[in-house]
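User: My notes are a mess, but here's the protein and zinc ion's SMILES. Can you give me a structure?
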Amino acid sequence: MKITYAEARNNKIGKHLREMYFNIDEESANVDSLTEKARQGFDNDTLVLVNSSCLPIEDSDATRKLSFWKKSARKIFAIEHEDNVQESNRELLSLIDSKLDNLNRSMETNRSLLAVVDKLKEAFKCVICREFVRGPAVAFSKCCKQQMGDVTCMDQLLSTCPLCRNSDFGFYTVTSFENLLTAMRNHGD
Ligand SMILES: [Zn+2]
Ligand SMILES: [Zn+2]
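Assistant: No problem, the inputs look usable. Here's the predicted complex:
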């Protein structure tokens, strides 16, 4: 028996897409089996069987007879059922939803990483010029052991620490943050 895979619009059979012939016997002469064959044959899980008036072929005593399907004047069409299409659209939408969820989560992760970078940048601001340290070296005070910032800015200071007001100001020059500072310069604002 022949099944024609067709488009359907407004409850009318539209463009014929493909035809396939299926073996049929007493066992498979019913709507369920033939729908399954059509779905496999045309590789589309949303197909339903309809007649030439685009009306669904229902399971009944009549359609469980070989003679019903073998009648050559009877055209059998396989179309995408609107409900089935809506069902697959729903599945697609929920897939998109879950992808968006993942995307939101990774954006959330990016946002919290950027917040960490912002905090680090704040911590590496020069206490004198208020700019992100120009590096590669960073100055740390000997008195209060704080991050001070630019070595050049520290060189211009007189003897009082701008943070703890200790009158014997001195600083260490630390170069081990170079890679970290470069990485921070490449991220955020
Ligand atoms: Zn500075
Ligand atoms: Zn100090």
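The chain is about 40% helix and 20% strand.
User: Great, I'll file this with my notes.
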